[in-house]
Design goal:
By secondary structure, the chain is mostly helical. It has seven helices and two strands; from the N terminus they run H-H-H-H-H-E-H-E-H. The protein has helices spanning 3-15, 17-33, 39-64, 67-102, 111-145, 166-179, 190-219, and strands at residues 155-156, 186-187. A two-stranded antiparallel sheet has the order 1-2.
């Protein structure tokens, strides 16, 4: 394995324990279910396990973190944050793709199995959708605090604060995910604009995929 890849992986283990714990829980769930369930269904359930556990960790981190903690985490985990975000992007889209196959042939299922399948689908859609803006919340925080010149911030918030916390970045990220706009936050750097552009494109595609799945599910009732 190249030295740089080893460095990034070691950074993930060192600075992203919550991500690793969530991944281990998902892996254990998959291995436990695999002997008795289909591989695709086992994957979807294990992805849900990862998503909800990791979301819980992220929300608790946002609530409990202080501004100086964010600065320190940015210094320690910039490279690993990019890899984690990439994993979340791939995982969310793969989970939606797998759902298309899992939902196939549901006409022959019993009412109980249909309820389980649709509940699992709803859980997957909600958790996957939440993961994207939450992942970008962390990414924007890392980008912002990687700027060495605090007097010229890469994002201008309405209060003109130079040290926003995670809730500020969460507001920025979810506004893009929901409305495809940056609201009252001004972008002032090329790296930040690139990140916003990527999130806007990804969010649009992801929202269209969710809409397609919802139409598919609705059609099955008729």
């Amino acid at each position: 394995m190249p030295r740089n890849d080893t460095h990034i992986l070691s950074a993930i283990f060192r600075t992203k324990p919550h991500f690793i714990v969530s991944l281990l829980i998902a892996t254990a769930t998959f291995l436990i279910l695999l002997p008795s369930e289909k591989a695709l269904l086992s994957f979807i359930i294990s992805w849900n396990a990862f998503s909800w556990v990791y979301l819980l960790f992220l929300f608790s981190k946002i609530v409990g973190s202080r501004k100086k903690d964010i600065c320190q985490e940015t210094i320690n985990a910039d490279e690993s944050a990019k890899m984690v975000l990439f994993f979340l992007l791939i995982g969310c889209f793969v989970s939606l793709l797998v759902l298309f196959f899992v939902l196939g042939g549901h006409d022959a299922l019993s009412t109980k199995d249909k309820i389980f399948q649709y509940s699992l689908t709803a859980s997957t859609l909600i958790s996957s959708w939440l993961l994207l803006p939450m992942g970008y919340t962390m990414h924007y925080a890392h980008l912002y605090y990687s700027n060495p010149n605090y007097s010229e911030p890469w994002l201008y918030f309405p209060e003109k604060t130079l040290k926003p916390d995670y809730s500020d970045f969460m507001y920025f990220s979810f506004t893009i995910a929901v409305a495809s706009q940056t609201a009252d936050v001004e972008i002032a750097s090329t790296p930040m604009r690139r990140a916003v552009l990527l999130q806007s494109i990804v969010s649009f595609i992801f929202n269209m995929a969710i809409l397609g799945l919802c139409i598919n599910i609705s059609a099955s009732f008729f």
